[in-house]
User: Fold these one by one.
Assistant:
Number 1:
Amino acid sequence: MLGHSTFRLADGVYWVGSRDWSRRLFDSLIPLPKGTSYNSYLIVGDGGEALIDTVNPGFELELEEKLRGLTDPGGISYIVMNHAEPDHAGAIPHMLKIASKAKLVTTSQGASMAQALYRVQPDRVMVVRDGEAVNLGGKTLRFIEAPMLHWPETMFTYLEEEGILFSCDFFGSHLAGGLYSDEVEDLLVHARRYWGEIMMPFRAMAQRALQRVEKLDVRLIAPSHGPVHRHPKQILEAYRRWAGGETRRKVTVVYVSMWGSTELMVKRAVETLEAENVEVAVHNLEVADVGEAVADLVDSRAIVLGAPTVLGGAHPIAFHIAHLVGSLRPPAKFALLLGSYGWGGGAVKQLGKTLEGLKLEVVGSVEVKGSPTAEDLKRVAEAAEALAEKVRREA
Ligand code: FEO
C-alpha cells in the first residue's frame, strides 16, 4: 500500500484518507481507470475532535495509523457519517472501537442504515437534523441534509470558521492521485465522468443542494473521492451546468455489431451527423469503457443506439447500456435507433421500450435484414439528417 501520509488542509483540519491506486471497478459496475480515494478528515478543535467519514473496508488500519500520528483516537468525540455507503462508512465499526467514547453523527435515515449495515447500536448514535451543529471549540460543524446525493440519508458537513464544505460524494472524482484539484490537468474530464456515473440521475436534488451551497461562504470543498477543491469556482460552475441539464450540439453514439451490418449503419449515421456540423462521440461497446460513454452523455443532446438482434431481442451488451442509460437519466432529448438481423428482428423495438421512461423523442429507427443495401443506408442518412436538424434547432 502506498503512502501513509496525512495533509494539513487548514488550521486543525487534516486529510487522513486512503488512496486506492489499484481499484478498477466500483459497485461491480463502474470502471475506475485511475483508481479512487476514500477521503477522511480529522477536525481538531479546542474542546473536541471529529472524524468526518471513514474509508473503504480493508483500509481501517491505515486510517488508524494516520490518526495516531495526529492524536489519540480514544479522544475523538464524533465520527460524522455523511453517507452510509461502505466506501466511506465501512471502517465505522473499527473506528467506533478505537474511538470508544465517540458518537456516530448522522441523519435519522443514516442511523437506520448504520444499524442495518454496520450493526451500530442506538446508544452510539447522535441523530442530527438539517441545520443543527456541534461545536468542537472554535470549530463549528453544521450539518446540511443532501438527500440522494448519493443515497437518501446523505448529508454535507460545513466547517463554518474555515468555510470548508465536506460534501462526501458530491463534487468528487474517481482519482487516486492529486491532493488539490488545481494540480490535476484534466480534472473536469474525470469530474464529468463521475457526475455521469453517480450524480446525473439526481439532477433536481443537485440543483437544490447547489442553491444551498451558494448561500455559504465556501472557500474549500473537500469531497470524499478525489482531489480537494481549494478554488471551488471551477467545480461549482461545472456542477451548475451539469445539474441544469445544459447540453451541446453533440450526439453520443453507442453500438455493438456482430458481423458488421449494424456497424455499417452506425458509420453512415456518424458521417452524416459530422457533415451536418454536429459533434459526435462514438463508443463501440465491444471494446468501450462504459464510463467514457456515460461521460459523453452528460452534455449530449441526442443518443444513437445501434444493435443487432440476438434471439428476438437486442444484443445483451446493447440491452445493458440501454438499461443503464434509462437509469442514469441523461439530459438528451432525441434518439435514433439502428439495428440489423439475420433471420428475425426485435432489437430496435426492445431498445425503444427500454428508453421509454426518458421521454426521448425517437427521431428515427431503422432495422434491416442482413447487410444494409444502398437504399437502407440512404434511410439511415435521412434519419441522421433529421436528428442533426433537431439537435441544431434545440441550441
Ligand atoms: Fe462514495 Fe456513494 O459512495
Note: The two ends are 49 Å apart (CA to CA).
Number 2:
Amino acid sequence: MTEPVIHGEGVVMTLGEGEARVNALKGVDLAVHTGELTLLMGPSGSGKTTLLSILGCVLTPSSGVITVAGQKTHHLSSEALAAMRRAQIGFVFQSYHLFPTLTAQENVELVLDVRGERGASARKRARDSLAAVGIEHKAAVLPGRLSGGEQQRVAIERALVGNPSIILADEPTAALDSENGHAVMEVLAGVAKERAVMAVTHDPRTLPFADRIVRIEDGKIIGEERPRSE
Ligand code: ADP
Ligand code: MG
C-alpha cells in the first residue's frame, strides 16, 4: 500500500449553533491512497460532504488531524492552505460548477490562467485534456449546450489540469442518466490509476467501478470493503 495522499485522524465536526447543533462527524479515521478509486457511501445527512470538505481542506474540523501529501494542515495559514489545495487537490461537484459564459475549452484554460499559464501552450493543454475524455469536438461549445455527462467531463478535466495528486468528487453522477453516469465513472476510474480518487455517492450504479468502498452512517465509518480482492 502506498503512503496515503490524504489522511484524516480523529475527525470530529460540529456544525450549527444552539438547538440546531449537529455532530456531523463523530471521530472519523480515513486514509485515501494513490492508485485507487474509493467510494464513500452513506445515506443523505450521514456526513459525506462534510468529510470530503474537511479532507479537501475547505472546512476546518472541530478536532482531528488532516495530513495532505505528508504535511499536517492544522498549523498552516489560510494562504498556505489555499496553495496546498491548488497544488494537491482537484474538486468535482454534482452540479459541475462550470462558468456558463465560457466555452468548454475556456473553462479549462481559466484554471491554467490562474496558475500563470497562458497563450498557445494553455490552449493546447486545454484542448488535449478535452480530447482525453472524448469531447475535443465540443471545445467551442458553451456548457448550456453540453449534456450533463459532457459538462461533468469538462469539470473533471478542469480539476485535473493543475496536476493534483487527489481528486475529490461529491456525488459526481447524481444528476446524470445511466449512460452519462457510466462515462463519468469510467473517466474517474482511469484517473484513479495514477492518482487518488475519492467519490462521495449514494448511487449504486457507481459500485462496479470501486476499488474500495467505505461506508459512513450518522457521522461514523461503519465498515469498508475491497470488492476486487474478494
Ligand atoms: P451528506 O453529504 O452525507 O448528505 P452532510 O455532510 O451534508 O451530509 O451533512 C451532515 C449533517 O450535518 C446533516 O445532519 C446536515 O444537516 C448537517 N449540516 C451540514 N452542513 C451544515 C451547516 N452548515 N450547519 C448546520 N448543519 C449542517
Ligand atoms: Mg452531501
Note: The longest strand covers residues 4-15.
